[in-house]
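Changelog-adjacent note: as of this version, every example in the card shows the full chain rather than a window. The one below runs 344 residues end to end.
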Amino acid sequence: MIPGFRGGAPGQRGFVLVATVWVLAALMVLADYINSVASADRERAHQAKQALQDDLDARATEATLLYLLITGRMSYRGLVLERRQHFQDLDAPRALPPGDGVVAVAGEPYAGLGRIRFSVQDESGLVSVNQPLTVPFRAALLHAGVASLDVALLQARLRDYIDRDGTLSLNGAERSGYERAGLAPPSNWYLASPVELRKVLGALAAVPEDQWPRLRRVTTGTITNGINVNTMPLELLTALFDGDEAAARRVAAYRELQPLTSAVAVGAVAGRPWRPAGGFSPLPSKRLRLAFWREGGRTRTLVGVAKTLGSTIAPWRKEYRYFEPAVGGAEPVREAATPLFQST
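Full-length structure tokens:
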């Protein structure tokens, strides 16, 4: 026995043992908490880094696409991609080579940098909300689930909304009607984008809420002299063929190989008459709608671009920019035939 050591009672030794176990358990809980906090911080840091990278990739994709659109040339289908650019006198008889690929301008999704996806839509392949009395606009509303009577009502009210006078048309609505409904009065000017269509009296009640994204995809604020079947989204083609998707797909497959140059040709390929009134535009216009979104993201960015190659200020002009919910689809993402969209 060690001199001076008296030892503790059995109960005291048990208490010390239990206390030690509790201290160890508390330390384990604390260590686990610290580890979970550290893991959460690492995950948040990773998400913040990925969000920053996605934002950089989106901006880089937009800048690269603008560069290609301005410096490249267009075919009837879209932007011709070339690994080596070709320059030629406009008076030269020799035709330019077909290029390495095409970025179609009918709204097809393409892979951009990183996780970014993009699409380009020629606005002459869409229906103008500023031409409400046309057959294509009526077809777009019907395809979005608007009842026939409501379509006629919306056409009249939209005409009153954008005209420059206060004269009330049949079934239309002017300032007094908006005031009674507690709404802002008509702008008496053209809509800047399809989003503004929601401001027209009765539009929110007539168009089902879940159909607004579909309607926005096939409409534009740009006034066109003729509609372009070569750059029209498949959904709008289907609407203009009264819901006949098979006819629309025949036209879409045909234009992958060669252009459609007349309404008669469209009807022959579709196997049914092409009825929309108005002019026929076989080539893309100078106004394009660019869309950018992250793979699996909830929103996408839409940018309206007008090519102004003859301007002394800039070769393009951005006319609008807004955000909308991203709508997922089963359509496969295409690869653009250019190394500029290949991440290193």
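Structural remarks: The chain has a mean pLDDT of 87.
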